[in-house]
Amino acid sequence: MWQNSFKDTSWTDRNDGENNTKIPLDRCPWCGGRLEYVDNAFCCSNDDCTFEEGLPVRLCDEDIYNYPPTLLFGTVDKFASIAHKVSTTKMGDDSRRLFGKGKNLNVLPPDLIIQDELHLLIGPLGSAVSLFECAIDQLCTRDDGTRPKIISSTATTRNTDLQIRTLYDRNLNIFPKNGIDYDDSFFAFYRRTENNNHFESKRKYIGIMPTGRTQMTTQMRLSAILFVHRALFEIGHQDEKDFEKVADNYYSIISYFNSLKEVGKTDALFYIEYVKYLRRLYKRVLRNGDLMECYYAGELTESEISGRLSASDVNKTFTEVATHWTLKNRLPHKEGEKWVRAILPPDYILATNMISVGLDVSRFNTIIMNSMPRNIAEYIQASSRVARNVHGLVITSHNPFRSRDVSHFEKFREFHEKLYYYVEPISITPFSKKSVEKYFSLYMAALIRHSFKELADGNSAKNLTTDELKKNVHDKVMAYIYNRYSRTMNLPVELELQKGLLTEDLKNNIEAFVDDALDQWETIAKTTIDLVYKAAPFRGKKPYLFIAPDAYDDEREQSSWTVPTSLRIVEPEAVLHVKVK
């Protein structure tokens, strides 16, 4: 799920080179030819391609609602739109069709949900997603009570059974199961050395903690050393068979930061201080004995992978960093009858936690971790971007002025020998009073508009004027809560933490919130004319029920219907320091 409609994709604004639009699919995945949009289909421009007549993909909300796909990819914040996109007249605006209902459609709902990167659903975001999953679970449940199967994947998680119970109200079954040996699960095993005494690892960790030097100076000198070693490697191995392949694997260096502020500071100094120190070190090591300085100590290039980039810039940057280094392309060369500039990947890549998921580039094999990330799961995910196929190096530069970094450095070997053991437990509280106040209205909006045809359309909020309809809505909303409370209370005694997810007090608080929200809705519907769900800009001022999260405080405090359009609208986390007197 990408744009709301095809007119939002700026398809006509594409240039003749790389993808400069918000469209994630620009070239044919079969032959690499440029795609064209013809007769509501993405067709390959290559006449000899199998997909000349169209790829089996839908990229826009409107297209997806019109033609519900067999397999749907989306992010959790995008799925929040199902509470706002419901229509009984326009198929292209009816998200009910994703669940087998809606205009001219009555089929079985989805029966398989796959959640990737489960470890990201923690904290405020996890609580918001957990409440919204209650609505998804009901909309995907068949008439005979069969609930959808849920498969989640993650490499870094603790107390997973509690997280699964909180998010999906399911029992945990881990696959694959442990094998006979702790390092052999039948489906996969740890590679050992020839003498079979030690595990073989392609990723090596080096810990550094400078004294008497700033973090920036240390980072600059580490980078310069790695840059100079590229020249040393070519001088010593340029005649070897696999030189070009090995040089490509270690040409680019990733520098990982914990904040955009640090990225900006490094970006400002890169072309001045970094290049200056690199040239000084290069002359000290190689003494200008050859012309290699032109290649490795001349003009350096950098790229950035962070949240500061727009969607089109992200596509462009991913193409740049995936470019392979070759001897032929590092100088201007001739392709056919045309001379082209040198084509080189960036020397230095500034990155934040944006690289932690979904970025698998085989030529990334060197990374500098500038200070320890805020949690161990992030450290594992970020450092795992290197050494995917060949041996890689992770250099962790610890900040001597941060006690947490000092502690990790002092126990560096012990920590990395039991890396996954130190992953922090996960905390999700979807039914707490604060979570209910912020996100339960989104759950109610999605469930009500998908379950009651008379309340589905955008202008049908005015129809909640009878006690009978209000009671039916109340019963529908609370039925899941009652059933979940019953399932929670029937859990075994040893699952005490899971039994505390939904207590009687929390259930009563939810019911009080539902009663208050429905009373507000009924009062507004009876006292106003033409009540709608959302305020429509530039279409005249009509009374509306849903309040935006960024509305004025007075407006939000007086309403129980603050319905966000994205699950990423969360409050920042805070650290509490408890002083013992």
Description of the molecule:
- The chain is α/β, with parallel strands linked by helices.
- Helix content is 35%, strand content 9%.
- The chain is built from 17 helices and 12 strands.
- A 6-stranded parallel sheet has the order 5-12-11-6-10-7, with helices on both faces.
- A hairpin with a 2-residue loop joins strand 1 (35-38) and strand 2.
- Helix 3 (123-139) packs parallel to helix 13 (433-451), helix 5 (215-237) crosses helix 7 and helix 14 packs antiparallel against helix 16.
- The chain is globular, with a radius of gyration of 28 Å.
- The mean pLDDT is 86.
Structural class by helix and strand composition: alpha/beta
The total count of helices amounts to 17
Beta-strand fraction estimate: 5-15%
Order of helices and strands: EEHHEHEHEHHEHHEHEEEEHEHHHHHHH
Largest sheet: 6 strands, parallel
Could you estimate the helical fraction of the residues in percent?
25-40%
Count of individual beta strands: 12
Overall mean confidence score, pLDDT: 86
Low-confidence regions: none
CATH hierarchy class name of the domain at 206-422: Alpha Beta
Distance from N terminus to C terminus (CA atoms, Å) equals 54 Å
Q: Label the overall shape.
A: globular
CATH architecture of the domain at 206-422: 3-Layer(aba) Sandwich
CATH topology-level fold name of the domain at 206-422: Rossmann fold
Side by side, the strands of the main sheet go: 5-12-11-6-10-7
Give me the CATH superfamily of the domain at 206-422: P-loop containing nucleotide triphosphate hydrolases
Radius of gyration: 28 Å
